[in-house]
Amino acid sequence: MILVLTPNTRPDSSEYKQLLAFLANLSGISTRVHNEVGVEQTLTEVYLIGNTKALSMEDMSRLPCVDRVVRISEEYRVLGRHKNDDRSTHFDYNGVRFGQDNLNVFAGLCAVDTIDHVEMMMKVLQEHGQVCTRMGAYKPRTSPYSFQGHGKACLPYVFDLAGKYGMKVIAMEITHESHVDEINEALHQTGSPTGVMLQIGTRNTQNFELLKIVGRQQEFPVLLKRGFGITLDESLNAAEYLASEGNRRVIFGLRGMKTNMGDPHRNFVDFAQVPAVHRLTRMPVCIDPSHSVGARTCSPEGMLDVMHVTAQGVIAGANMVLVDFHPVPNKALVDGPQALLVKELPLFLEDIRIAREAYEKRMALIMQYQQE
Ligand code: PEP
Ligand code: MN
Prior knowledge:
Shape: globular
CATH superfamily of the largest domain: Aldolase class I
Strand content: 15-25%
Distance between the termini: 35 Å
Bound molecules: phosphoenolpyruvate, manganese (II) ion
Number of helices: 11
Radius of gyration: 22 Å
């Protein structure tokens, strides 16, 4: 059960102390307090953990400071969408809104290779009105002999260039807790010209100790990729690890499942689950068409499979598209064969616009139908 308190409840107020004292006396129930500090107000939620079945919603809503009560009907206590749950489904980070009701595109390099490629990429993004990008510095690779990413060495120039080209958020995978410190340090050194969304890759979806550490920091939002060989429920629970430690600014990423049933694609595309994640949780949902498809194959008309699956995810309501581009794909050190070309960026963005418009029309249609 969650007690949502009246906005701006002060922790030193006598009503709040009275509430906590009352809750402390309930047998078999422990509490966990979460504060969400916003620009305009601070929201406090008190999670009641244990046997809450015997508690009446009505009684609890009469307690001091309590604005409303949500009974947790499903798993994913913090990030889940529960019955009569009108908690928000969006957050803002560095001036960019991330929600279940909007869409952001993160086109960019799978892996940072040269400073020139970073600059060429960001320049094109800016020319097409983009403020978000992806830039991998720490790359988890199948072979220990493959390029592992430039790591912290590339961060200063990536951040400087992001500032120069108006990039507000960079999605960047981390594979170890020390990477969070390195990113923080590089941002500090460069005067924080941009923001970073920490990406937990599919190989680390169930790295619970990493999740706990990343969940404890509140500085950066997190993109958690679905594990490539586990159920949706297991991956949503992994997201809940982040939130249970305090970081609720989590985006859930679909990136395809590893099975040869997906052939000829690199992974079996799972974007049909975008609406399922919306139904089960309050997280914005990202799709990664590049790592799902893994190649530049086309339909007979010449439309890339990467673009087809992007449109399929967007028309189902996806909120973020994470996609590999490269100015010179044959020089890319990671995933060149699946990268889109920078000259394809306007085409890609227009195709997304069409799919998003279709999604919005579909939602208007269903709302009209329900009113009839
Ligand atoms: C990536 O986005 O660069 C990546 C490695 O993705 P995934 O973890 O989904 O394989
Ligand atoms: Mn990749």
